[in-house]
Design goal:
The protein has 182 residues and is α+β, with helices and mostly antiparallel strands. The protein has 2 domains: 49 residues, no CATH class; 110 residues, Arc Repressor Mutant, subunit A (Orthogonal Bundle). 49% of the residues lie in helices and 18% in strands. The protein has 8 helices and 7 strands; from the N terminus they run H-E-E-H-H-H-E-E-H-E-H-H-E-E-H. It has a 3-stranded antiparallel sheet with strand order 5-7-6. The N and C termini lie far apart (59 Å).
Length: 182
């Protein structure tokens, strides 16, 4: 037995709109953490890293992407309209691999904003949005998969990996943000 107790109760819709609530009971002390999922998770990690210092080390060894950081990196570069993804910068000087990654980031953005069911794009969709030939796009996707920046999902669909998303946030989006506006 893990000693973990999960209590489930129904709440009214006003409570759900306020965020999430976690009740943490440890060593006779009860703590309530209320807020957005990101805030609650951050507070939980902070608490556990103090109680169990090895957790801090483990969290440094696990690669993850902060959703808010991803959304902020897209600001001024990509936007979502009722018609779909909008690229706000002139991407004509980007290399083919960078262009593919920008469009895959756009798919992830649309998915995170609830505008798309999946964060993947097919080879045909990438070819259409980038304006590159099928052979060029297929070759770049193969290279990106070998570099573990993109993964193939199912038959002919692709998405950014966690590392690919990190590269987009840290390296690609800051450079693209400097390009001229469209």
């Amino acid at each position: 037995m893990s000693g973990l107790e999960v209590l489930e109760r129904k709440s009214d819709s006003r409570e759900a709109a306020a965020g999430i609530e976690v009740v943490l009971k440890h060593s006779g002390v009860e703590n309530r953490i209320i807020g957005s999922p990101e805030t609650v998770l951050r507070e939980l990690l902070s608490y556990f890293s103090k109680v169990y210092p090895s957790i801090e080390l483990v969290s440094k060894l696990v690669l993850s992407v902060d959703s808010i950081e991803f959304l902020q990196s897209c600001s001024g570069v990509l936007a979502v309209s009722p018609e779909g993804l909008v690229v706000l910068r002139d991407l004509k000087d980007l290399k083919d691999k960078e262009l593919v990654m920008i469009h895959l980031a756009g798919s992830r953005l649309q998915h995170q904003m609830g505008k798309k069911e999946s964060d993947t794009l097919s080879l045909d969709e990438i070819t259409k949005t980038t304006g590159r030939s099928t052979g060029t796009v297929a070759g770049r996707l193969s290279e990106l998969c070998n570099e573990q920046l993109v993964e193939r999902v199912g038959k002919g669909s692709y998405r950014l990996t966690t590392m690919g998303t990190r590269v987009v946030i840290k390296n690609l989006m800051p450079r693209v943000a400097q390009l001229p506006e469209r």
